[in-house]
Amino acid sequence: MVQFAQVIVDVPSLQTNRPYDYVIPAVWQAQLQPGMRVVVPFGKGQRQVQGFVVGTTAAPPDYNGELKTIAAVLDLQPVLNPELLALAKWLAQWTFAFQISCMQTMLPSVMKASYSKKVRLTGAATVATTAIFHDQTELDFADLAPEVIKQLLKWQQQHLVEVVYEVHDRAKVKTLKAVQPLLTAADYTAAAAKVPANAKRQHELLAFLAAHAAAKAPIPMHEITATTELTLAPVHAGVAKGWLRLVDLETYRDPYAELASAPRTQPLTLTAEQATAVQQITAAGEQKRDQVFLVEGVTGSGKTEIYLQAIQAAITAGRTALMLVPEIGLTPQMVARVRGRFGEHVAVLHSGLSTGERYDEWRRIERGEAQVVVGARSAIFAPLQHIGLIIMDEEHESSYKQDEMPRYHARDVALWRAKYHHCPVVLGSATPSLESRARAQKGVYQLIRLKERANHQPLPEVTVVDMKNELKKTKEDNFSSLLLQELRKRVLHQEQSVLMLNRRGFSSFVMCRDCGFVLQCPNCDISLTLHMDTHSMKCHYCGHEEAIPQVCPNCQSRKIRYYGTGTQKVETELHTLLPEARILRMDVDTTRRKGAHGKLLRQFGNHEADILLGTQMIAKGLDFPDVTLVGVLNADTALGLPDFRASERTFQLLTQVSGRAGRAEKKGEVIVQTYNPEHYAIRLARHHDYEGFYKREMTLRHQTGYPPYYYTILVTASHEEENEAAKKIFQLMTQIKPALSKQAILLGPTPRAIARVNKRYYYQMVIKYKREPHLQQVLTQIMQENQARHGIQISIDREPLSFI
Ligand code: ADP
Ligand code: ZN
Ligand code: ZN
User: What quaternary arrangement does the UniProt entry report (predicted)?
Assistant: First the structure.
């Protein structure tokens, strides 16, 4: 008999990765399992905290104090299965995070917060259940006594009850009315004989019930009203006569409902390159090898079709598949393609869903009702079982790395889960990260290259325009004469264009023309960004917002000027230059509302506009056949950033956006405007030369000692007082340095590039290393010792994607 449980507690002030031992009260001993949540007393006094059970034992733990007892059980069944529990443990170590934050990251937010929880009867009512539920079908979990929970734990194992979360903002689990036939077909026919002939509706109802009695399943009311003349009134009469019962059927909120009715797509006949790729991946799947494939395929090479057919093979083999897409790339187009092939077997998870929608999708996965999961970063924790394939599309995307605790990269989690499930991983990109491409070079990953577009069309021709020359000709236009002329041509021929404004490393601000004053955030060392739609100035770091000043706060001059090129400004300019063009603008401002992104894309697809103007978010994944021109207004704003990945990011972005042109029969053309036409990232992107870029960039990284030649870890300390933050980082340095070998390189400590954010000062140092056996231990120790003490916060970021 198990009597003791090991519990990871949620104590924000004293974080710890160590489980604590508790006594399991006798009533729950038989049913309590790892992965369930409990309430336990913690510390001195009567403080009660939540925790996750991570183990149970019969033998008393090796502890000589007095053990406390679990106060309450919060789940009737584990919310984290053994795989996810093991994953949380590993993830905490790997990312220097707390196990509790890893566990919470894996669950839908509705299960973390104070949403109310109900126990619902799922089976037929019995004498025993009626004693607890009386005439209700739902109970409030919070009201239940331990004895009752004991009984419910048993029923849960027999699938008689379930726990559901009520999301107040978006109704609870959505239900619809349905008719449950109660008699046999013969009984209905007999009943019909006694009904007067002129009671037409009753006859119709009885005929309907007789026809559906054999199936025993409830029939949704909307199906009945759609196929018969029946309404709710005769159905209620039927209830009174004991012919049927009205029941509530659970439905899921379906965020992609309109896609569900679309006809299924059939697998395409693969090109030779695609076929080889699919064969290699499915062979690894059949042999249960956790092999990693890097699919390096030019834009339009048909990577998605490879994913779809590999997923099909996994499903046919009785396994499941997980497909990750970057948040920004999770366009309705991509969802439609996967849904179009696998229909209702697909669950979709991303941050655009409401809390309730996410929870519904999670439950469908957890119950095994969805075999294919498509989602953004956190979908990597989807509770799928028997995974047969994990895909990461656009694997180079930085949105796969979470920038708060746990600071994980979805790729690392994917590799861990693939090992656990013995299944292959597919990393796909036209421009793989240097880290992945280098691993393929060394044979750690299997490289699969697709050099041709699926339609055998050539890649679009790229023209680079040197804006330094353009500037002399015109004033401060965003448009070169060549780009303008080509845009005009497209409008005339009713072809479409995509225009991208690169906003990375770039923002609009307000400056006084008399004294040069720039409005700064009061909390952070950064200037405020101008937002025309809300007519306000905002801080992108802390959210601070204030009105656009009319007079300069410094010299009281009225000569305030707006600087920088926002999409809105470009749109206005374009309206003046090309009044005949219909323009759709897509940026954070126009896509904030739910569903707005998809709507804009639909409008563009329907030719309701000639030009789609947008930020980076238009660069990825879009597949519109009539786009023959892609323009990049400013290719190089990111090149000047103090980040060793600046060239890589620029090359990736240019390649991605160029790939939007000429995807069908019509030839595509790309015009790139830049002040650095000779920069190798721009030159090589012009020739679609990823391999050339890879070689060149690797040489540079080798010379400067950056990834993939070195691993990096970023250590940051912050405090409201600048000298406290500085003192701490130097103290950490003296702690870390002795643990390192001579091969390791310590950069810093230095103040962070934006030293103050949200009233806190940040100091950092970077450790570059190849093999450091003691590093993990010393960093783990630092995390344990330093949490939230004396107002100091410390973060440790393995392989940071941003150093500024
Ligand atoms: P990528 O993701 O590699 O950029 P996509 O998967 O979007 O490319 O494919 C580009 C286009 O080629 C899509 O319109 C797709 O339907 C089409 N396509 C892909 N594979 C085939 C094939 N085997 N036969 C015909 N068309 C294909
Ligand atoms: Zn001024
Ligand atoms: Zn701020």
Answer: Component of the replication restart primosome.
Check if 735 has its Cβ closer than 6 Å to any atom of ligand 1: no
Residue with tokens 């007519």: 535
Q: Nearest ligand to the C-alpha of residue 554? A: 2
Annotated binding residues, written as ranges, equal 512, 515, 521, 524, 539, 542, 552, 555
Beta bridge partners of 117: 165
The rounded Å distance from CA 556 to ligand 2 centre is 6
Rounded distance between C-alpha atoms, residue 38 and residue 29, angstroms: 13
Cα(766)–Cα(762) distance, integer angstroms: 13
From the CB of 268, is ligand 1 less than 6 Å away? Answer: yes
The whole-angstrom separation of Cα 43 and Cα 663 is 63
Q: Give the residue, by CA position, lying nearest to ligand 1 atom 14.
A: 623
Closest Cα to atom 15 of ligand 1:
302
What whole-number distance in Å separates Cα of residue 705 and Cα of residue 699? Answer: 10
Tokens of 139: 């109970």
User: Cα of 468 to ligand 2 centre, how many Å?
Assistant: 30
Joined tokens for residue 381: 């924790």
CB of 455 sitting under 6 A from ligand 1:
yes
Distance CA 381, CA 671 (A): 40
Cα of 109 vs its chain's centroid, Å: 13
Give the distance (Å) from ligand 2 centre to CA of residue 278: 63
Give the ligand at the shortest distance from the Cα of 542. Answer: 3
Radius of gyration of the chain (CA): 30
Phi, psi for 752 (deg, rounded to 5): -65, 155
Residue numbers in the chain where pLDDT is lower than 70: 12-16, 45, 113-115, 166-175, 215-216, 250-262, 328-331, 471-477, 503-508, 532-533, 563-565, 588-589, 592, 594, 620-621, 640-642, 663-664, 787-789, 804
- As a whole number of angstroms, the distance between CA 576 and CA 615 comes to 20
For ligand 2, the distance from its centroid to the CA atom of residue 509, given in whole angstroms, is 14
Burial class from Cβ neighbours inside 10 Å (0-12, 13-18, 19+) for residue 550 reads exposed
> Which whole-number Å values give the CA distances from 108 to 67, 522, 746, in the listed order?
32, 35, 39
Position in ligand 1 atom list of the atom nearest CA 271:
23
Whether residue 429 has its Cβ less than 6 Å from ligand 1: no
Task: Give residue-wise pLDDT tens across range 51-95.
Answer: 999 999 988 888 777 889 998 888 888 999 999 999 999 999 999
State if residue 270 touches ligand 1 by the CB under 6 angstroms criterion. yes
Does the C-beta of 452 come closer than 6 Å to ligand 1? Answer: no
Which atom of ligand 1 sits closest to the CA of residue 301? 3
Please report the pLDDT score of residue 776 as a whole number. 95
DSSP tag of 422: T
Evaluate: CB of 431 within 6 angstroms of ligand 1.
no
What was the pLDDT predicted at 75? 85
pLDDT at site 172? 45
pLDDT tens-place string over residues 103-136? 999 998 877 755 577 788 877 777 788 888 877 7
d(CA 190, CA 36): 52
User: Which amino acid is residue 69, in one-letter code?
Assistant: T
The per-residue DSSP string of 780-798 comes to HHHHHHHTT-TT-EEEEEE
Closest-lying ligand to the alpha carbon of 515?
2
> What are the tokens at 153?
């734990």
Cα–Cα distance for residue pair 797/791, rounded to 1 Å: 20
Say how far apart CA 38 and CA 80 lie, in whole Å.
13
| Probe target for ligand 1 pocket from 312, 455, 620, with the most ligand atoms within 8 Å of CB | 455
User: For ligand 1, is residue 331 a contact (CB within 6 Å)?
Assistant: no
Nearest to 617 by CA among 600, 640, 629: 600
Q: Alpha helices, DSSP H only, in 18-158?
A: 82-95, 99-106, 127-133, 146-157
**Spatial distance between the Cα atoms of 671 and 498, rounded to a whole number of angstroms:** 11
* Residue 621: per-residue pLDDT: 58
Minimum-distance ligand to the CA of 529? 3
